[in-house]
Specification:
Elements: E1 21-24, E2 29-37, E3 40-47, E4 58-62, E5 74-82, E6 92-99, E7 105-108, E8 112-115, E9 120-128, E10 136-146, E11 153-162, E12 167-173, E13 177-178, E14 183-192, E15 195-196, E16 201-207, E17 213-219, E18 225-231, E19 239-249, E20 258-268
Parallel strand pairs: 13-20
Antiparallel strand pairs: 1-2, 2-3, 4-5, 5-9, 6-8, 6-10, 7-9, 10-11, 12-14, 14-15, 14-18, 16-17, 16-19, 19-20
Length: about 270
């Protein structure tokens, strides 16, 4: 390991003298003897590979808001964790945790996730509120912390909504009478008490005087209202057109599944 020694004689002189350096270009490693004595030697080792840089993991939760449920209902949230350490770092273990309202329970499908840099993994947190908890929205917070370096962590939040009010439905058209070729605007409104049922899929059936039924589909907005359009042909038959919406509700303000709906009509002249 003495650079000045010829290959033929290096077998007999393998010591690395103080101040001399041995380099392995293939491995990207250099070794330098900085001190030596009867008690031992001190060496400095340099590795040319990039250093491991630890970073906070990314955490997301799905769904961001639960459906409206009664108190005591178990709701599952999926937490996804991404290891943001650079590629020179080894795989890391991330401990999963949660912060819930007092008296609530949360059960993880696994207590931790082992991830390589750049990789993601998911676990399920099942949250249950105490029976009798008041109607409103509650925050569910999840965390993931690096088991080897707990100062590196990430968090995310979701919402658990308790609402025992029954679902009410409103169904209206923008006019009561139309001419062939016009477009009928139909609004469907969904409310649980005073809370809008946002993001709900709705399907409305429009039946013409001849008995032909057309189904219109849409999704309620943040205000719980969906706006649908029914295009009348230029040869649309005159008479009364019936409009109907119906949906099945279970688990909220009902011991068993119930059907809630509404009907309206308009005429074509």
């Amino acid at each position: 390991m003495t650079p000045e020694t010829t290959p033929e004689s290096s077998w007999y002189d393998s010591a690395l003298a103080v101040g001399h350096t041995f380099a392995d270009a293939t491995a990207g490693v250099t070794i330098t003897t900085t001190a030596a004595g009867s008690a031992g030697a001190t060496v400095e080792i340099t590795m040319n590979g990039s250093a491991c840089t630890t970073a906070n993991p990314s955490v997301t939760v799905s769904p961001s808001q639960s459906q409206y449920v009664t108190s005591g209902t178990a709701v599952s949230f999926t937490a996804t964790v991404t290891d943001n350490d650079n590629s020179s770092c080894p795989a890391a273990t991330f401990n999963l945790g949660d912060a819930l309202p007092s008296g609530w329970t949360g059960v993880w499908s696994v207590p931790a996730l082992s991830l390589s840099p750049g990789k993601s993994g998911s676990a399920t947190l099942t949250v249950t509120s105490p029976v009798g908890t008041a109607d409103r929205s509650y925050s569910v917070n999840v965390t993931a912390s690096n088991a080897s370096a707990s100062s590196y962590s990430g968090s995310a939040a979701a919402t658990y909504v308790i609402n025992t009010a029954p679902l009410s439905v409103s169904l209206n058209t923008n006019q009561s009478s139309y001419l062939p070729g016009q477009t009928v605007g139909i609004t469907v409104g969904l409310l649980y008490g005073t809370l809008p049922d946002s993001g709900a899929g709705v399907s409305v059936a429009v039946t013409s005087p001849s008995g032909k039924t057309t189904t219109l589909s849409g999704t309620t907005g943040y205000n719980g209202v969906a706006l649908l359009y029914y295009k009348l042909s230029k040869n649309a038959p005159a008479g009364t057109y019936n409009v109907h919406y119906g949906t099945t509700v279970s688990g909220v303000a009902a011991a068993a599944s119930t059907t809630v709906g509404a009907s309206t009509s308009f005429t074509v002249q």
